[in-house]
Amino acid sequence: MANTISHQTSQWDTLHNNGPFDLKLLQKTRLEGKANMPSEIERYNDVANEIRRLLQEALNHNEGFRAYGARWSMSSIAHQKDRMHYNVFMNLDLQISSNDVHASSVYDKKNLFFFQCGNTIKEISQSLAAHGKSLKTSGASNGQTIAGCISTGVHGSALGVGSVQDYVVGLNLITGPNPEDVVYLERLSKPALNDAFAQKIKSKVIRDDNLFNAALVSLGSFGFIHGVVIEAEDQFLLKRYVKKIDKKVALELSRTMDFENSSFHIPGEIDGNGKPLKPYHYKVFINPYTDEKEYVIEAMYKKPYTNNYPDPFTTIEKSVYRDLIHLLIKISEKFPKKIPFFIKRLEKQILPDVNEETIGTLYETFWDAPYQGPAFACSFGVDSKDSEKALKILIDLTKNEGPIPGIYAMRFVKKSEATMAFTKFPVTCMIEIDGVLWNKSRKLIGLKEFSRRMIQVLQQNNIPFTIHWGKNSDWGFPDLVKDMYGDNAVEWKKQRNKLLSKEMAKVFSNDFLKTIGLSNVEDTENVEDLIASI
Amino acid sequence: MTTSTKKMFQITFLLVGILTLFASCYSVRLVSTHGAPNPCQTGVEPDCMEDLGNFYRDKRVVVIDTVVKAGVTTDDIGIRVQRSGCETGKLFSVEYKNTFGGSLLYLVTFGSKRKVKIKYICMKQ
């Protein structure tokens, strides 16, 4: 039987030290060993029973319960003050055979894969590679669990693909302690797996587009995500270029996405008519404290897979002394005017090498991002059409009311169907500032204050925006979610209330959800009404 | 030579000595580009070691810090990965640290005592 270890504790923190946060009980479940239970499905169902038992315990104690994975989120979205469940050891992948695919499925059966919640992007990528397949996109690295990625909207900069949640086609949720609380959810309009498969994982089937779209970016609040069905694609290579290009061209591309008619082109990356190709990935790096005429950009082009390419990994890797970074931050807190100088000196460590060219799979290109000490990241989504204007506003703020120890980047993501996806614009430009976590001082603005000012200046300039759920912000800013999502926030709550009982909605809530005003529960129609089959 | 010049020489000598000691203590880490490291939660789980450096955050590390007795005829020393902390038996990374003290110990004992300082991480199950 699956086994849970519980630790009485007092504190919990994120990977990047954005806490600490109070916590009473930390739980960690391990699967039954293969030797005792060789069937993967049996082990999967066995651990589902264990999760239901843990949910009953939480209910009995009138406490909250929240699952989390690699704790990469910098906001408090993953935190629950009562009970937290570390799920990285729940990393099975279940085989999907052609008998499991729904008769009306629009997906190629060879591209459907089922992964348990604790699988990291790295594990999934390796597992897919063994089948000659790849994820369609990932974040900038690979350590997040699949459940964490979709709950918070992890994205890369794949212009035509979207975020991680956008290739999820089925969800296995545990919404309560009873056997009937195990649900297999997918779109009615695009079913992936049949009822017979759902029976194997002892799940009740719900096919509903609105509910599925709401549960995709669930903020961890639509029950325990036990498994996800993803649509993969054939393995491919990414040719990566790092260039310094005219700032005006970089910003124009960000605004228009019109690569075909741009003066930016890379020899060899052109179509039959000699016009520049649209890249798979486009990213712009901006040091807010310099007024250079050129920006560093990263462009990647998709290529057919072949195993005859040079190893993309550099053999020797060096890193800056952690104590040196700590020292620079301490100096910055006393003498903030030195920040631009330090950033300029560290540019080589922060930015990719200009004129670098590599080729590798998605897995190899977006490989491990090593932890480099306490960090912050603020990330705003705007319509790509507003990207230049929004960037200027945020850079001006950073220069005038900062400086703060970070640099900007812009990434671009296709619109998501998820109700609460921050990638809600036709092409969302994610403007992000990442850096080293600092302490507020007499001379240096605090992170929360700076985050609040970012929201204020965008609002003052009438730029519609969203905020990355897993990044730092002033999440208590009045009417923030209403302003960002309007009716979609109402729809999300409605769908959540349909799926969860009042008691379980409370169990799956946390302070983050309360802060942003999404935790309240209203009486709605019974979930039984939602069960549909086609 | 004035007293202040002497003092400056002494400080410089001390600094050079300290820097030499630092330089004589270094580590090299071999990391696999495949497989996922065995995870744990630094700062949250009591049995997840802290202060091992940035690379080791949220990874379950096994540390070997010992002195191995060896005879004059001993050429190499092998260390076997134990099951505890390494259920998969597969290695994700191995770091060997060379210290000034370790080198000194080897010299003064004519190789009969060898300081071994290794950190390794196994693959996740």
Question: What would you note in describing this structure?
Answer:
The complex is a heterodimer of chains A (534) and B (125). The two termini of chain A are 35 Å apart. In chain A, strand 2 and strand 3 form a beta hairpin. Chain A has an eight-stranded antiparallel beta sheet. A six-stranded mixed beta sheet of chain A has the order 7-8-13-10-11-12, with helices on both faces. In chain A, strands 1-4-6-5 form a four-stranded mixed beta sheet, covered by helices on one side. The mean pLDDT of chain A is 92. Chain A has 534 residues and is α+β, with helices and mostly antiparallel strands. Chain A has helices spanning 40-60, 121-129, 146-152, 195-200, 209-216, 247-256, 322-334, 339-350, 362-365, 387-401, 447-460, 480-485, 487-499, 502-507, 511-515, and strands at residues 3-8, 11-12, 21-22, 25-30, 65-68, 83-86, 93-94, 112-116, 133-134, 168-174, 182-186, 204-207, 224-231, 233-234, 236-246, 281-286, 294-304, 357-361, 375-383, 406-414, 427-436, 465-467. In chain A, 28% of the residues lie in helices and 23% in strands. Chain A has 15 helices and 22 strands. Chain B has a four-stranded antiparallel beta sheet. The longest helix of chain B has 21 residues, at 3-23. The N and C termini of chain B lie far apart (67 Å). The mean pLDDT of chain B is 84. Classes of the chains: A alpha+beta (534), B alpha+beta (125). Chains A and B meet through strand 2 and helix 2 of A and loops of B.
Notable characteristics:
heterodimer, A: 534 residues, alpha+beta, 8-stranded antiparallel β-sheet, 6-stranded mixed β-sheet, globular, B: 125 residues, 4-stranded antiparallel β-sheet, 2 helices, 4 strands
Which chains have the largest interface? A-B, 29 and 18 residues
Main beta-sheet strand count, sense and barrel state of chain A: 8 strands, antiparallel
* Percent helix of chain B: 10-25%
Count of discrete alpha- or pi-helical segments spanning 4 or more residues of chain B: 2
- In total, how many beta strands of chain A? 22
The portion of residues forming beta strands of chain A comes to: 15-25%
Q: Structural class per helix/strand content of chain B?
A: alpha+beta
For the biggest sheet of chain B, the summary is: 4 strands, antiparallel
What gyration radius of chain B follows from the Cα positions, in whole Å? 20 Å
Tell me how many strands of chain B there are.
4
What fraction, in percent, of the residue positions of chain A are helical?
Answer: 25-40%
Radius of gyration of chain A: 23 Å
Spatial strand sequence of the major β-sheet of chain A: 18-15-17-16-20-21-19-22
Ranges of chain A where pLDDT stays below 50 over 5 or more residues in a row are none
